[in-house]
Specification:
The protein is of the alpha+beta class. Helix content is about 30%, strand content about 25%. The protein has 8 helices and 20 strands. A hairpin with a 4-residue loop joins strand 3 (about 145-155) and strand 4 (about 160-170). Helix 1 runs antiparallel to helix 2, helix 3 (about 50-65) packs antiparallel against helix 4 (about 75-95) and helix 3 packs parallel to helix 5. The longest helix is centred in the N-terminal third of the chain and has 21 residues, at about 75-95. The radius of gyration is 23 Å and the shape is globular.
């Protein structure tokens, strides 16, 4: 069994000519995160949460229904249910042969209640927007923007992106973002969702000057977001601020454009962020932070992993200098899956071994203890993690359910 070595932090990056709305939304919180999303390959990211795969599948079934790609005999509800099952089966087959084989079947990686809620909402949305298959469905007219996943480009803004749905009439352009997960926070539509849609609105306005632009986020319902001179001025100001720090073609210092904070929790590149790597040890032992830091473990392997009856065990010294003992790792899949919301793990098995003294990454729950013991044990298909310290955290999970 081998472990994936912790990659070295990035130092300098070259800014591409264009950035996408999703990358710009990330850059609004952390410019480095947005830039890494544009220039790094998918293989450079942290292993994804299984929820990300599930979300992609649910989005796909809504998109395919809108596009008129779901055909066969039966009612729209029956066809959509069958199509969804097929997409899950295909993704499971893709994952089964790789390092994330322990995610299969995907539907079992989250609680049944969560799966039922998300899949039911996605199927309902897909039924609501179902269109009969047509050879021309989804094709853009010769002189129009209309269609599904239309590419919108503005060279002057240095922005290019594919909107989920663009509908164009003689007088207006409607942009829709299809969502199957949560899009709201306590204040309304989540800021990153609104940011992306307003970037798309600005792109549509540049591509079709003179036409009214409207933007909608389609989740459980179709919800229109305001778009007018006030919103346009605000989003242009944000884009100018981001582009001033990330001018096209410039080589930028990664440390200077990184911002450590709440957004790190959802960043797929935090393991190569020089600022996060520098500040994480202090974050892990700080009490009273206004946000929850990422649940990571990263450190230096102190001795060779040992195969035992209950799995593989290892000892490492984490980045804060604390000894960490991990036992019960699967021989085939590394740690399998971490419990809790941040189930990304860099401790999965790989084809190459890692020598003693090499830094590796796993998952971590913050503790103020100088010595943290991390024990992994079998819990059905997945792992349970227990941490003992001055502020002990006990996390137990089966089928993705966690309790403290």
């Amino acid at each position: 069994m081998g472990f994936r070595a912790l990659a070295e932090p990035v130092s300098r990056l070259v800014v591409p000519a264009t950035l996408g709305p999703t990358q710009l939304a990330r850059a609004a919180s952390c410019q480095l995160s947005g830039l890494l999303g544009a220039v790094h390959l998918a293989s450079d990211r942290l292993p994804p949460d299984p929820r990300a795969f599930i979300g992609t599948i649910l989005h796909r079934v809504v998109e395919d229904s809108y596009r008129g790609r779901i055909c066969g005999n039966g009612t729209p509800a029956e066809l959509i249910a069958g199509h969804l099952a097929s997409l899950f089966r295909q993704k499971g087959e893709d994952l089964a042969g790789g390092e994330l084989a322990h995610y299969v079947p995907l539907g079992d990686t989250i609680t049944y209640a969560e799966y039922l809620d998300r899949s039911t909402r996605a199927r309902k949305r897909a039924v609501d927007c179902y269109r009969e298959p047509s050879p021309q469905r989804g094709e853009a007219p010769a002189e129009g923007l209309a269609g599904v996943e239309r590419l919108l480009v503005s060279k002057s803004l240095g922005v290019a992106g594919r909107a989920d749905v663009v509908e164009e009439t003689a007088t207006e352009v409607v942009v829709r973002d299809l969502k199957t997960g949560s899009v709201r926070d306590r204040d309304g539509i989540a800021p990153h969702v609104a940011f992306q849609l307003r970037v798309y609105a600005l792109l549509a306005q540049e591509c079709r000057p003179g036409k009214r632009v409207r933007i909608f986020v389609d989740h459980a319902v179709s919800e229109e977001l305001p778009w007018g001179p006030t919103e346009e001025l605000a989003i242009r100001g944000e884009l100018e601020r981001i582009r001033a720090a990330l001018p096209p073609g410039a080589a930028v210092d990664a440390r200077q454009i990184a911002s450590v904070g709440e957004a790190c929790r959802w960043c797929d590149f935090r393991h190569v962020c020089p600022a996060f790597r520098e500040e994480a040890p202090q974050l892990w032992s700080t009490v009273g932070l206004p946000y929850v830091p990422p649940q990571d473990v990263a450190g230096t392997l102190e001795d060779a992993p040992k195969a035992r009856e209950n799995g593989v065990s290892l000892r490492l010294c984490d980045l804060a200098g604390r000894p960490v003992s991990i036992v019960g790792l699967s021989r085939d899949t590394g740690c399998g899956r971490s419990c809790g919301r941040d189930s990304r793990c860099g401790c999965s098995a790989s084809r190459r071994g890692v020598a003693t003294g090499t830094r590796i990454g796993s998952t971590h729950i913050p503790s103020t203890s100088e010595s943290v013991r991390c024990q992994w044990a079998s819990a059905g298909r997945f792992a349970c993690v227990c941490f003992w310290g001055d502020q002990a955290h006990r996390i137990a999970g089966r089928l993705g359910g966690c309790r403290q």
